[in-house]
């Protein structure tokens, strides 16, 4: 059953876990293909909007993964993370248009300007943090302009230029990618505003949002994992089994934080983790098992907490990687509760977006 108001993106499992402690054996390509297809179908069965596909030096190409998802599902939208360091803008536009043309499906884009610093340096990109966002804006503007153009298209930006290109195949306006952008820095937020992209941030404890007024447009994005079960006790038992205390992981997290120039990583890392904050949980993040906070508890507890984030305008939700079908089903119960709790509010706030 599809969501009426919320856009829910799962996250596609990685071909190679970024957490060293999870790398137990060599990755089998055929098994990975099957796992992509399986989790994509679980997402679609629960009415999710799409699934995020990561991008960095150690993973298989995100566009190859996107094609598998298009082949194995009927409606699920791939949300591909795109960093300008990996692909020329015209090539990206051509790839988006080609997939849309062949499958009559949209492929969305999650713009990223950073990533692992070592990945960027190894590819010869030592651009400073804020300038990477300037470069990203130029890049994304070219891609969008090429896809929307019906005739000859020119772009003369500070980083990228094209002269008299004509995008073939042409695609309808309905198949132009929805754009999201990750980033909490001033440069990241400014770039999102200029592009008109949905701003995606990692969830902070709800108490940190006291001074924020609910968004008029109700189109913000937020990222976290969810472990929800019928009772709080069952959820926390599962959470601690999946993410036990790990001194080696904690040390790896500290090292990663020191090496990163990511604002969101430093913001989340600075939060106190000595006790649970209702259903908000940071141990998986602080033990380097994943890169986002978690909401843990009974369906009703998680739904009540999630409703508070949604009231602040966070209607695009990107979940952490889930590898079990039950997790998708339990998340869907939470989202149904949230939409039921907030139906009137969401209907009023999101009406302008439908015009």
Give keywords.
12 strands; 355 residues; two-stranded antiparallel ribbon
Overall description:
This protein is α/β, with parallel strands linked by helices and 355 residues long. The chain has 13 helices and twelve strands. It has helices spanning 29-45, 62-72, 89-103, 117-122, 129-148, 186-195, 232-242, 247-259, 263-269, 283-286, 299-311, 325-341, 343-350; strands at 7-11, 50-53, 77-82, 108-111, 153-156, 161-165, 179-182, 198-202, 220-229, 280-281, 294-298, 314-319. The protein has an eight-stranded parallel β-barrel with strand order 1-2-3-4-7-8-9-12, surrounded by six helices. A two-stranded antiparallel ribbon has the order 5-6. α11 (299-311) packs across α12. The longest helix is centred in the middle third of the chain and has 20 residues, at 129-148.
Summary of the model, kept short:
By secondary structure, the protein is an alpha/beta fold.
């Amino acid at each position: 059953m599809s969501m009426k108001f919320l856009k829910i993106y799962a996250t596609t499992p990685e071909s190679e876990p970024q957490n060293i402690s999870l790398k137990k054996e060599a990755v089998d390509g055929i098994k990975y293909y099957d796992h992509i297809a399986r989790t994509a179908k679980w997402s679609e069965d629960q009415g999710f909007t799409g699934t995020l596909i990561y991008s960095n030096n150690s993973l298989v190409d995100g566009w190859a993964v996107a094609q598998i998802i298009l082949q194995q599902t009927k409606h699920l939208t791939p949300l591909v993370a795109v960093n300008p360091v990996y692909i020329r803008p015209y090539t990206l536009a051509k790839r988006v248009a080609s997939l849309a043309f062949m499958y009559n499906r949209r492929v969305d884009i999650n713009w990223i300007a950073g990533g692992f610093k070592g990945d960027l340096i190894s590819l010869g990109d030592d651009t400073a943090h804020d300038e990477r966002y300037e470069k990203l804006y130029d890049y994304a503007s070219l891609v969008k302009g090429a896809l929307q153009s019906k005739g000859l298209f020119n772009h003369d930006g500070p980083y990228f230029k094209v002269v008299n290109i004509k995008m073939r195949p042409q695609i309808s306006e309905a198949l132009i990618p929805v754009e999201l952008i990750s980033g909490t820095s001033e440069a990241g937020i400014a770039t999102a505003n200029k592009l008109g992209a949905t701003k995606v941030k990692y969830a902070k404890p709800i108490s940190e949002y006291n001074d924020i007024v609910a968004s008029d447009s109700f189109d913000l994005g937020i990222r976290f994992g969810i472990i929800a079960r019928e009772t709080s006790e069952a959820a926390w038992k599962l959470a601690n089994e999946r993410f036990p205390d790990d001194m080696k992981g904690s040390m790896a997290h500290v090292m990663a934080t020191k090496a990163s120039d990511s604002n969101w990583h430093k913001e989340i890392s600075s939060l106190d983790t000595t006790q649970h904050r209702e259903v908000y949980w940071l141990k998986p993040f602080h033990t380097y098992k994943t890169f986002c906070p978690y909401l843990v508890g009974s369906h009703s507890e998680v739904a009540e907490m999630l409703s508070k984030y949604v009231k602040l305008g966070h209607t695009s939700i990107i979940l952490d990687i889930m590898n079990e079908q039950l997790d998708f089903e339990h998340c869907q119960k939470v989202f149904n509760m949230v939409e039921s709790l907030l139906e009137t509010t969401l209907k009023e706030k999101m009406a302008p977006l439908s015009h």
